[in-house]
Amino acid sequence: MNDHDLIKRTADFVREKFLHEGSGHDWEHIRRVWQVARALARDTPHANPLVTELGALLHDVADWKFHNGDEEAGPRASRAWLESQQAEEPVMQAVEVIIREISFKGLGVATPMSSVEGELVQDADRLDAIGAIGVARAFAYGGHKGRPLHDPAIPPMVHESFESYKQNTAPTINHFYEKLLHLRERLHTPAAREVAEKRHAFMEQFLTQFLLEWESKDVKAGPQEKP
Ligand code: ADP
Ligand code: NI
After folding, report:
1. What is the tens place of the pLDDT at every residue in 155-185?
2. Closest CA to 54 of 65, 67, 38
3. What separation in Å is there between the alpha carbon of 31 and the centre of ligand 1?
4. CA–CA separation, 102 vs 99, rounded Å?
5. How many CB atoms sit inside 10 A of residue 109's CB?
6. Ligand nearest, relative to CA of residue 171
7. Atom from ligand 1 closest to the CA of residue 125
8. Shortest-distance atom of ligand 1 to CA 147
9. pTM surpassing 0.90?
């Protein structure tokens, strides 16, 4: 099978699988990551386009968040699909490594990518976690998990291990301080960093306004005494 057909078949497979997913890990997320990774690859010499595109399309194929914390579910599902399509071993291997390395694992945990293609896919995935889409996805995920929007009595944490990050059940606002506001500093490519500036500023503005409204500080008569 030529590269174009393999990408097309993979996109069809992933679209079909994720079309009705409502937790922020939907096909539209994957479509955006695919599109952005492809755009970043055009500016990156030596990036293998097939590995970049397959990595983007398959990066969330079986995320640990939805497989009882099983970190190998994604790499395994990716290999099973690519084997069924008779992909070449080095391509399967490269894609599997991207999926194994890509996830955010806690503020105190480094997540270096061992290939340039992996860096592009991780940048694209992280750009989709910030900005207006990032805000929407965070609350979609929080709603899916039944989390409160905010609770000032529960302060954000620095997770020093993937295990502690995985077990986290804090309100969604905490996720901004525990992950989303730090993604800008953890991008690899200059093009992604540039895009992140506006998206980051938007999130900060959102948080300022959210916390103002939380205390009704923008209401003329208020703030009222707490009941
Ligand atoms: P990653 O692999 O880096 O976690 P994903 O592509 O799997 O990224 O996307 C996870 C999405 O779910 C992101 O938009 C992220 O902000 C959101 N998310 C993950 N954990 C939480 C959480 N505890 N609260 C709110 N949103 C979350
Ligand atoms: Ni993703």
Report:
1. 999 999 999 998 999 999 999 999 999 999 9
2. 38
3. 16
4. 5
5. 16
6. 1
7. 6
8. 24
9. yes
